[in-house]
């Protein structure tokens, strides 16, 4: 229900999308495609360093659909249990919100929940890849997408054996994963020397060059009629009769018909301004970008036990990883950067050290069950949520934007919205 409009001198788009990251832009695209007037508000520059889309590895495709919450993670979901050098680290000084989040996370660490989550996420990833290929068919954006497949490298015999045991089930779930036989990795990456026990390969591995993709996508949206206001933060929601009548921002006011909150790690803070409680925690990750070393892999590689990803970006190599539940700070940790580089040396000991071009850290908004929050906010009639995509947001964004567009337009959704409902944690027992 759209509230009655009282002051026609205010900007009054059909939909205001709060957040100009990849999810927000995909929502804007789908809404504009359905004829809505859309204004996107981004707290910094589009694709700027504050955005999680700025320094990540940009992975899309069908890899990475397994929820973070799985049976083996339950014992690690306790503050103070993990070591500071661990790829998964929780601050020992957990506050009430993190403690509540971890309680739900532990509940989700079951085989049944993980299997159900995988089915939802792989469906969204497949649909997202289809939509992304359609989007990147245009000449301007085409250069920002690469789809050479992805190699999953395993340093230890135990890690490789566990991975091989899961291949059949993963393939049955729709991921074309296969075990590489003797010599096949050398054929795929003839210039790279690995010191590993074995590897898997997914030919549907792809990645986006970021932040270039975000910048080009923004240009395309502006040309289609989407208004994008950069350096604009929401400061207040004016609510009456369970409808948002106005949004007050650092650069003026708007009177939207509908609001979509998709502000990444800041979604929880933004939603609280409207009296909405979201079950989100920021999971911090780091990346380091170096000049391309001779002998670096040409396709994406996941250093599996170390939870580190490598991706070639022209004359640069980006190395990203780490999962830290340590609050909203984006300060770069030189210790964490060192751990990334050390992991690379363990898997690729012959790789030459080259100059560091950039170090970065960003916050990935995560839910306890690894499924995003997509749909009506519940307490307010004209507010929807699209947040909580975690470390696989690039690969889920197109399907998420499509679902938001379908829900607002009253269409039959292609993605089942029930597992993604934003209030599922408040109603769980």
What are the SSEs and their pairings?
Blueprint: E1 15-18, H1 22-33, E2 38-41, E3 59-61, E4 88-90, H2 96-108, H3 111-135, H4 139-142, E5 145-146, E6 150-154, H5 157-172, E7 178-179, H6 184-188, E8 198-202, E9 205-208, H7 212-224, E10 227-229, E11 234-240, E12 243-249, E13 252-254, E14 258-261, H8 267-273, E15 281-291, E16 301-303, E17 308-313, E18 316-325, H9 334-347, E19 356-366, E20 373-376, E21 383-387, H10 393-409
Parallel strand pairs: 1-2, 1-14, 2-10, 4-18, 6-16, 14-21
Antiparallel strand pairs: 3-9, 5-9, 6-8, 7-8, 11-12, 12-13, 15-18, 15-19, 16-17, 17-18, 20-21
Q: How would you explain this protein's 3D organization?
A:
This protein has 429 residues and is an alpha/beta fold. Helix content is 29%, strand content 25%. The chain has ten helices and 21 strands. It has helices spanning 22-33, 96-108, 111-135, 139-142, 157-172, 184-188, 212-224, 267-273, 334-347, 393-409, and strands spanning 15-18, 38-41, 59-61, 88-90, 145-146, 150-154, 178-179, 198-202, 205-208, 227-229, 234-240, 243-249, 252-254, 258-261, 281-291, 301-303, 308-313, 316-325, 356-366, 373-376, 383-387. The strands form four sheets. Strands 4, 6, 7, 8, 15, 16, 17, 18 and 19 form a nine-stranded mixed β-sheet that branches. The chain is globular and about 65 Å long.
Features of this protein?
single chain; 429 residues; alpha/beta; nine-stranded mixed sheet; six-stranded mixed sheet; 21 strands; disordered N terminus
């Amino acid at each position: 229900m759209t509230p009655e409009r009282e002051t026609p001198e205010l900007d009054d788009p059909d939909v205001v999308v709060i957040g100009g990251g990849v999810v927000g832009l995909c929502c804007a695209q789908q809404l504009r495609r359905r004829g809505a007037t859309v204004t996107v508000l981004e707290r910094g520059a589009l694709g700027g360093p504050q955005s999680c889309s700025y320094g990540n590895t940009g992975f899309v495709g069908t890899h990475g659909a397994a929820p973070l919450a799985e049976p083996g993670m339950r014992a690690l979901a306790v503050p103070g249990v993990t070591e500071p050098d661990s790829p998964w680290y929780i601050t020992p000084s957990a506050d009430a919100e993190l403690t509540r989040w971890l309680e739900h996370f532990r509940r989700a660490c079951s085989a049944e929940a993980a299997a159900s989550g995988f089915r939802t996420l792989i469906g969204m990833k497949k649909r997202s890849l289809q939509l992304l290929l359609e989007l990147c068919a245009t000449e301007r954006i085409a250069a920002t997408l690469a789809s050479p497949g992805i190699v999953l490298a395993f340093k230890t015999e135990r890690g490789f054996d566990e991975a091989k045991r899961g291949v059949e089930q993963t393939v049955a779930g729709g991921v074309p994963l296969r075990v590489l036989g003797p010599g096949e990795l050398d054929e795929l990456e003839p210039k790279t020397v690995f010191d590993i026990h074995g590897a898997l390969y997914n030919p549907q591995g792809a990645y986006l060059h970021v932040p270039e993709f975000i910048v080009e996508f923004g240009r395309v949206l502006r040309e289609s009629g989407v208004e994008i206001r950069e350096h604009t933060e929401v400061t207040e929601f004016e609510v009456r009769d369970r409808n948002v009548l106005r949004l007050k921002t650092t650069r003026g006011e708007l009177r939207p018909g509908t609001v979509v909150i998709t502000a990444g790690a800041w979604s929880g803070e933004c939603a609280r301004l409207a009296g909405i409680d979201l079950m989100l925690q920021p999971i911090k990750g780091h990346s380091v970008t170096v000049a391309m070393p001779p002998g670096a892999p040409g396709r994406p590689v996941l250093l599996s036990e170390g939870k580190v990803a490598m991706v070639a970006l022209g004359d640069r190599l980006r190395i990203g990883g780490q999962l830290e539940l340590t609050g909203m700070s984006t300060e770069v940790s030189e210790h964490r950067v060192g751990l990334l580089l050390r992991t690379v040396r363990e898997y690729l000991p012959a790789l030459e050290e080259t100059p560091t071009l950039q170090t970065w850290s960003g916050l990935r908004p995560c839910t306890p069950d690894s499924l995003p929050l997509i749909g009506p906010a519940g307490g307010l009639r004209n507010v929807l949520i699209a947040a909580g995509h975690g470390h696989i947001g690039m690969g889920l964004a197109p399907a998420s934007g499509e679902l938001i567009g379908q829900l607002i337009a009253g269409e039959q959704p292609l993605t089942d919205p029930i597992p993604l409902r934003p209030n599922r944690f408040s109603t769980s027992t």
